[in-house]
Write a structure and sequence with these properties.
Number of helices: 14
Strand order of the largest sheet: 1-2-3-4-5
Number of strands: 5
Oligomer: single chain
Order of helices and strands: HHHHHHEEHEHHEHHEHHH
Radius of gyration: 19 Å
Largest sheet: 5 strands, mixed
Distance between the termini: 39 Å
Helix content: 40-55%
Amino acid sequence: MPSEVISEFPIEDEYKKKTGITPQDIAELRKWLDTQPHLPGKYITDLDLILAYHCCDRSSGVTKQVLDLHYTLRTLFTTYFKDRKVEDVDLTMRSILMTLLDTRSRDGSAIWFTHFMDPDPKIFNFGQAIKTVLMLLDLWQYEQGTWPGFIIVIDFEHMSLGHLAKLDLLNIQQFLYYLQEAILVKLKGLHFINAPSFIDKILLMMRPFMKKELMDILCVHQVGSTTLDKYIPMTALPSDAGGSCKTTKEYHEAVISKMIANKEYFIAENNKRAVEALRPGKPKTIPDIFGGVEGSFKKLDID
């Protein structure tokens, strides 16, 4: 069944969630945003502000810093965010399943699931995979608003040494920095399931760019193990990936339809970028960003 064009999650329904966020909080953030000439204030919605305020545990000061960094990185990390079009990620979208699962975790957190649909490493492009997952995440947050938390499950079934050879340090560094410092979710878990024999090589590449907070919520699960059930119900997974929900094929077809039906969303979203020439003081560059990796605003959510 073809997907339909989605609508933004209603603000009035967002205020009904048990987040503690009020219209007055968002009005104050909007007032601050109007004083930031380099940020795309006229394109930033109240839902965007709510997502940021929620993921920063309603700290106004932290939210302002994270908002600035979030839109700055969307300008500087061109591989993931420049002129995003659904057509440009078509091959990646069709070879890898990246989806929000229908079932939530026991505490209500959204569960993100990634799985190789095509095992051929020749068509794997790591940068494009990151770009695709961030496009899909934007789409789901636009549709559903805030979640109590966000848990990532990456299924390494079908991953080979050919895929490993295509993982590069620049993309690992940029993605992990964005994940830890600027993504507008409360990250509560990162799980690698069906871990291959060379998982230690992947972890070795990741560790220099991971802070203790992310290390603490990273869990590796061996092939055939059910240890994931300690963190999220195994039944939440697709039926052919150890769970009892829809199949990976059904999820995959739905995701492709969703992206194709919502091409216009990304055309509009491309306006949400910082304009460094308008920033008061000195424009930010990538060396500026990675020169201050130790300066963290956003805290990961650890139970």
